[in-house]
Amino acid sequence: MMKRRAVLATAPGAALLIAGCGTDDATEGLDPDKPYIALVSKGFQHQFWQAVQDGAEQAAEEFDVEITFEGPDSESEVAQQIDMLQTALDRDPDAIGFAALDSQASVPLMTEAQSRGIPVIAFDSGVDSDVPVTTASTDNLAAAALAAEHMVELIGGAGKIALVVHDQTSVTGVQRRDGFAEYIEQNAPDVEIVDIQYGAGDQLESTNIATAIIEGNPDLVGIYGANEGSAIGVINAVQELDRVGEIQIIGFDSGQAQIDAIRSGVMAGAITQNPVGIGYETVKAAVAAINGDDLPETIDTGFYWYDATNIDDTEIQAVLYE
User: Does residue 64 contact residue 12 with C-beta atoms inside 8 Å?
Assistant: First the structure.
């Protein structure tokens, strides 16, 4: 595939957008005269990634570029994601957007992209490499600390809590764990984290993990779920064990299940990112990189705490996805 021209102007265009789980013909039908940006996400199993894709599509239309948006079958499929990244590189795109499941596994391909002059935009999750020209993401350390602050308030500053995290290999997993745990350690001496487990962002696995934690700690007063799938798993476990009202649940991201749980009082609240903004800013940054513009090291796409008191506020509704 020949390199496409730089983006000369912002204009609404008929950018063809192909989403899926990665096929060799993903670029079929794309306009070869437009810049092409290949986006490889962490998956499609959560509504979060669908919202990220929506933002990417909005930017693609605004800047008149072609994009593909692909991801593995689940957020535990690191090898599948790396294969997708290799396939994206083989298409010789003008830029790549990449949300790493494993911050180290992609490093060799980052080096390959750099050697071929293909700028890389990291989104949602960074990589252990200097190759990406910028990272468009939430400040996950600060967001997790805010979740911990609310947890401390909800449990009255004392008691046993646990964490269900999606993984310990991605930057988001590590930072959402560490930001939460460090806040507790530094600010809540009477709060004890009795367990941290990893459910790969899978709802069923996270349900089983949360169930085991609760059964093993009958005096537990709070659980934090660090992404959409983790939080839904915690909700399921608390409901199935009839512990609603006894265990405070704090989640991350949104989606219909968490929104419903907050409205019904099962979940106390959650942190929402700005997934549409993440997708939009990734494509916008890729366009800038294609044009040779300077970019900041990071692009903070923002986060918010939401609960029953503010879930219907205009500012919160704008960043929730169902």
Answer: yes
